[in-house]
Amino acid sequence: VEKIEEQLASLRIAKRSTLSEKPAYLLDIDVSKPAQSESSRFVAVSCSNKSIRVYNRETLNFLREYSSRPGILNGVRFAHTCDSIVFSACSDGTVKCWDIRLATEKAVQIFRGYPSNVFISFDINCSDLILCAGTEEVEKDTFLVFWDARGITDCAGTPKEPLGVYSESHNDDITTICFHPIKPNLVVSGSTDGLVNVFDINKDNEVDALVSTCNSDSSVSVIGWSGKDYKQVYCTTHDEGFCWWDTAQLDTEEPITLLHVPDVRDVVCAENDSLSYLVGGLYHEKADKLFLIGGTSTGNIHLVGCGTDGLSLVGALCGGHSATVRSFCWDLTDESLLTGGEDAQLLLWKPGAVERSLAKKASLKIASSVQKRVRVHNSSLKSRKK
């Protein structure tokens, strides 16, 4: 574990994307899943200007942009079995899918929800067979909507209708969805109602499918899987809390909660530079170690190690961003880290790298009114209520 911590602490900026003419917050990042014996070729970023931008993975050169105006795009995911297919949920009640090999800016496939649906979260399972999206609460209803995602590019132009929905397990906005990395039938969802629900979608109905319900006691912002065979679930909350559970203990007398920290900012103290928000979690498979990534309003990034005995600061990445970091993506293939922030910059960090570009770090304050789905780091949950 010490070696991994040293490696993370040795991350340096290798590449920096050039600023676009219309700067925007970078809210979510994903890298394409590598084809046989290759590394990832593409990076996709969802932005606060309602677009998805695609970059070359090695050079961070801009390739193309997809927009869904007037709808707002939320989240970005590459397919697992085809590295050129990218998805995003949209506030117009659809999940859209693009093929970045094609010159067209039109979606090659649209997955349509029900009329009242406003999708704010989604994921696709590891076999690319099932797509799931979560809705905002509308008239006390919230839904997890499922589609058959097979034959993505075969029937372009014909919107796909849902396979079905789960509607009983959450009673507020479903803010985050994450399929299991290796078991295509398991999915976990998180909501502003504080609940983190694990489902086995192979079951016939929602009641039987609900494997476990964990309560974070706060509004859930990010969820993920960790541990050997990915039997653990963790979440961060909108008021910077952290919860970590072991689903392997469900059928035992042992407690399921591994760690619950109501406010990580109170626990993790950094010299001269306190942690002010969390961005998400990073499970390092080789080391079997879970880390949290957080930061400061000036753009410094903190790496926090998680143990059942508590949290500890591993190191900080400084000098990259000049404003709040909103998103990151860990790439196991070359142990690199991509980060994006409110300074509109996309950075690639690699162990021991030396930045060759002379581009100066721009201190940007973006003047546009950022769309309301952009997460605001605030200790008060009341400010999130409509």
UniProtKB/TrEMBL annotation:
The domain of life is Eukaryota
Q: Does the keyword Lyase apply?
A: no
Entry keyword set: Repeat, WD repeat
Keyword hit for Cell cycle = no
Q: What residue spans do the WD repeats cover?
A: 167-209, 318-350
What the entry lists under InterPro entries is as follows: WD40/YVTN_repeat-like_dom_sf, WD40_repeat_dom_sf, WD40_rpt, WDR89
Q: Which Pfam families match?
A: WD40
SMART domains reported for this sequence: WD40 (SM00320)
Please report the name of this protein according to its UniProt entry.
WD repeat-containing protein 89
Q: What is the lineage of its organism?
A: Eukaryota, Metazoa, Chordata, Craniata, Vertebrata
